[in-house]
Structure formats: structure tokens, C-alpha cells
Design a protein that fits this description.
With about 475 residues, this protein is α/β, with parallel strands linked by helices. It is built from 20 helices and 23 strands. The strands form seven sheets. Strands 3-2-1-7-20 form a five-stranded parallel β-sheet, covered by helices on one side. Strand 4 (about 85-90) and strand 5 (about 95-100) form a beta hairpin. Helix 8 (about 190-200) packs across helix 9 (about 205-220) and helix 8 runs antiparallel to helix 13 (about 355-365). The protein binds flavin-adenine dinucleotide (FAD). Flavin-adenine dinucleotide binds near residues 114 and 116. Flavin-adenine dinucleotide binds near residues 14, 15, 16, 36 and 41.
């Protein structure tokens, strides 16, 4: 790993790969790191290994679109360090990475954070039972290892990724027993304006979504308006109880349950840096505030892709390229006028790529029960803190996420609050009848990814190498 690097890109997904390829066109020296063994990010996980196999046909065209992006990335001359994790970042920018048991400090001139999204944590009773997992986790098994679940298989949730995964499983020959659609009743009817804009701007997205839904309805039991879900079983999932519409609760046999309520930007790195963040009410999540090039409130730290706000893979590629042009401008490799000229066509394409965004955000915003689970659900699975315990602390006057953390240990486990930060914020908002945006999230402390004492003790610095 060279210390003499202009640009360190964290994340080799659509945004990171596209940014690296573009930055290399300006002669900028680039190192891309990713905690995964291969480039591709979430959507194109394992693309170089899987992209030409039968599994790629199951995953669909949106998956194989990554082949070309990954090939151009490999040829662009950027360094790539796989299985390398950013575990802390400070102003400077100073980055702290670890790879194969060795931690090191690096001080590139500019950092581009392209660390993507994470699935929205939506706890419910029984969500930690073996047999229950998120759709993202199920998709990782399918993409990386071709693994599919055994029946009875249920999918519960809403949004494009839930429908896509169901269709991918069907194409893989899996019999899906039922699809519990948690989309709030009447949301589609209230999204007519955005739906028309999406139809005009991105007709193919809308037609693809409708085709997925039609296939799901044709091939498995489809239950709309699902309000509540409880997963049951002694030591693993064996049943699901759900409430849909005005009907009485129903219990069904289940061996696998995949849940999903959308994705949110993975803001731990920008939170660690204390960057300014903005609340996006439609996406019910925060994203780092950034200028038109993606530069955050922390000088020389840029954000691109889903970290900068959920917008999908095509937009992630374009935002990666725009950030690379902005970085070239920052490093005085390009003039402002040249940068504006280069970015103009990309910005046009970005607007088109995002034409369906408002429709998707509005239509698939999770129902209130997804944000505020029942008292007996685990809110923090690492430290086993229930929703009821958090409510009790709030009533006792500890109504701030950091005080909840100190008094309950919620957010202090291995995931460092990645899985419970929004849940705690939403519970506090509900308990105090306030806006989640006014509650905020836990302060992020280093390391925001697990780090062993041995790795920390052997921390190397780039200065020491020179
Ligand atoms: C679980 C999941 C599955 C998804 N599947 C699909 C799909 O099948 N189809 C679809 O259209 N959209 C999917 N999405 C949405 C999709 O991720 C985005 O639209 C798109 O991939 C965003 O690209 P990106 O480059 O911003 O981020 P990503 O593709 O998420 O890439 C981010 C990369 O950063 C790396 N990274 C993150 N944190 C660190 C760190 N601290 N240190 C080092 N590396 C790090 C990750 O390993 C990852 O490779 C999925 C999202 C999630 C969360």
C-alpha cells in the first residue's frame, strides 16, 4: 500500500469503481480499498467470478451490467486492496485501515467514501431466531455461493429489492410459500404525481417492477397490507404470525423468513468524522451534507453513491464520476470551468437516472410499525436490549441516544450501533412524540468496525514507512 497516494477510495461498488476509473483519466494516483474479497459492491457482489455463469442469468440484467464497470476498473491503473477495512477516519484526512491482521494509518490527499448503504434495521419479535434473515443476507448467499433456502419460504417486506429477490429465488427454482407485502395501504394511490414522473422519465423501471410483482402474485400466495409480523419457534424459526388488513391474525408454518424494509446510507464513517448530516424525511434517514461535487463538510473528504443518499446503482456510478471530476478540480488537475463542462452531461444523466426516485421513496416508505417495534422485540441484538427497556429509560429521563447507550449498552456491541441506531432514535421520537430528525443518532466512536487489540498494537503509520 503506497503512502504517496492522491486519492483513497473506500468501497469498490458502483460508485467507487466508477470514481476510480474516472480519476485515473486525470492521472490521479488512486488506491481503492474494500472489505470484500472482490470488487462489485452490494449489487454486483462477486461479478467477476459469477458474471459469466448460469447464476448470473438468475440474478438478471441489472447484475450483469456490472461486468463492464468492473472490467474498466481493473484496467484503469488504480490500485485495489481487497479485504481491507476502514475502521476509523479523522480530519486531515487521516484514515485507519486494517487488512489481514495488520492495522495501518494512511494520509491520502483526498478520501472518497463510497461505502454504500445498509438495510434499514426493523426489529420485530423473533427477528433474531435462526431461519430469519434480511433479504440482503439472503442475496449475499445467492450471489456469493449460489445458496437458496429450503421451504416453507416466506418473504416479508416492501420495495424493489424485496420483489427482485423473490423473482431471483423463483428463477433459481425455489418455491416461495408466501410474500407478505408490508407496503402501507393507500401509498400507491397517494403517489400518482411521482408515479407519472417516473413513468415518463424511467418507464423501464416501472415496467420491470410491475412484471416482478405480477410474477410473484402468479406463483405464490401474496398477502397485501401486512401490518405486524412475529417470528416464532423454540430454537429456530418454525412459524410466522401476521396481521394483514382488517383480518384476524394468522399463523403459518415457516422454515425461512426473509425481511426487508428498504436501505439507508451507511453513515458510520461520516458520523465518525463529525461531518454535517441532513435528514431526508422521505427516505427516513440521514445522509452527509455535500456540495455539488460530493465534498462533505470535512475538507478533502468526498462522499458518493448510496452513502450520499439512496439513489441506486446507475446513479451511484454517475455520482462516483462526478466526485472524481470534483476531486480533480480540488487537486488542481482541472480548472473549475473544465470540471463544470465535463460534469454537465453526467449531471443530465444523473437527473434521468433518478427520475423514479421520488416515486420509490414515497411508495415504499416503511409503515410506522417497522420503525417502532413492540416492547418485547430486541432493539439491540448485540447487547440484547429490548424496545421496552429503551422506552423505560426514556421515561426515566434518559431521552437522548447517547444516554440510552451509556445506561443500557445498546449500540456498544460488535456492530457499534449500525443495527440499532435508527431503532433507538425512532423509539425515542415515538415516546417523546417528537420528530426523529430532532432526536439524532449515537455518537460514533473508533473503531466503527471490529478491531482486535493485537491489530491495534501493531498499528503502522505511512510516515513510519517513508
Ligand atoms: C445488502 C444490499 C443488497 C443490495 N442488492 C441490490 C441488488 O441486488 N440490486 C440493486 O439494484 N440494488 C441493490 N442494493 C442497493 C445497491 O447497493 C445500491 O444501489 C448500489 O450498489 C450502491 O452502490 P455504491 O457504490 O454506493 O455502494 P455499494 O454497492 O454498497 O458498495 C459499497 C462498498 O463499500 C464497501 N465498504 C463499506 N464499508 C466499508 C469499510 N468500512 N471499509 C471498507 N469497505 C467498506 C462494501 O464492502 C461495498 O463493497 C443492495 C443494497 C444492500 C444494502
Amino acid at each position: 500500500m503506497s503512502p504517496d497516494i492522491d486519492l483513497l477510495i473506500v468501497g469498490a461498488g458502483p460508485a467507487g469503481m466508477s470514481a476510480a476509473t474516472k480519476a485515473r483519466e486525470f492521472g490521479i494516483s488512486v488506491l481503492v480499498v474494500d472489505e470484500q474479497p472482490e470488487p462489485g459492491g452490494q449489487i454486483w457482489r462477486g461479478i467477476e467470478r459469477v458474471g459469466h455463469t448460469a447464476r448470473a442469468e438468475i440474478l438478471g440484467e441489472s447484475y450483469t451490467a456490472g461486468l463492464d464497470v468492473a472490467a474498466r476498473f481493473r484496467q484503469c491503473g488504480a490500485g485495489f486492496s481487497s479485504e481491507t477495512t476502514l475502521w476509523h477516519i479523522e480530519p486531515g484526512p487521516v484514515t485507519f485501515l486494517k487488512s489481514k491482521g495488520v492495522a495501518r494509518r494512511m494520509t491520502p490527499r483526498v478520501v472518497l467514501l463510497a461505502t454504500g448503504a445498509q438495510e434499514r434495521p426493523t426489529p420485530f419479535k423473533g427477528w433474531t431466531l435462526p431461519g430469519v434473515m434480511t433479504i440482503g443476507a439472503g442475496q449475499i448467499q445467492l450471489k456469493s455461493a449460489g445458496q437458496v433456502p429450503d421451504g416453507p419460504v416466506w418473504i416479508a417486506g416492501t420495495g424493489p429489492l424485496a420483489y427482485l429477490y423473490a423473482v431471483q429465488l423463483l428463477k433459481a427454482g425455489v418455491e416461495i410459500t408466501g410474500f407478505l407485502d408490508t407496503q402501507s395501504k393507500g401509498r400507491l394511490a397517494r403517489s400518482i404525481g411521482p408515479a407519472l414522473a417516473a413513468l415518463i422519465g424511467r418507464p423501464s423501471d416501472i415496467m420491470t417492477g410491475l412484471a416482478w410483482l405480477a410474477r410473484i402474485k402468479r406463483t405464490c400466495r401474496y398477502v397485501p397490507n401486512v401490518r405486524q409480523i412475529v417470528a416464532g419457534g423454540d430454537d429456530r424459526l418454525d412459524r410466522i404470525t401476521f396481521e394483514a388488513g382488517d383480518r384476524a391474525p394468522e399463523t403459518v408454518a415457516a422454515a425461512a423468513l426473509f425481511v426487508h424494509e428498504g436501505v439507508v446510507p451507511g453513515i458510520h464513517p461520516t458520523m465518525a468524522l463529525d461531518c454535517r448530516h441532513q435528514w431526508n424525511d422521505m427516505q427516513a434517514s440521514y445522509a452527509p451534507a455535500a456540495d455539488e461535487w460530493g465534498e462533505t463538510s470535512e475538507p478533502c473528504v468526498f462522499a458518493a453513491g448510496d452513502l450520499a443518499g439512496i439513489a441506486g446503482a446507475e446513479a451511484a456510478c454517475l455520482r462516483g464520476e462526478i466526485a472524481a471530476i470534483g476531486i480533480a478540480r480540488k487537486l488542481a488537475v482541472q480548472t473549475h470551468a473544465q470540471a463544470e463542462q465535463d460534469a454537465a452531461p453526467l449531471r443530465k444523466r444523473l437527473a434521468k437516472a433518478m427520475a423514479a426516485r421520488r416515486f420509490l421513496d414515497q411508495t415504499y416508505r416503511p409503515r410506522q410499525a417497522a420503525f417502532v417495534p413492540a416492547d418485547d422485540a430486541l432493539a439491540c441484538r448485540c447487547e440484547e436490549v429490548t424496545v421496552g427497556q429503551i422506552r423505560a429509560l426514556c421515561r426515566a429521563g434518559k431521552g437522548d441516544p447517547n444516554r440510552i447507550k451509556a445506561f443500557s449498552r445498546a449500540g456498544m456491541g460488535a456492530c457499534q450501533g449500525r443495527l440499532c441506531n435508527y431503532t433507538v432514535g425512532n423509539i425515542l421520537a415515538d415516546e417523546t412524540q417528537s420528530d426523529p430528525a430532532s432526536i439524532g443518532l449515537y455518537r460514533v466512536r473508533p473503531p466503527f468496525r471490529p478491531l482486535t487489540l493485537d491489530e491495534l498494537a501493531r498499528l503502522q503509520t505511512d510516515e513510519a514507512d517513508t
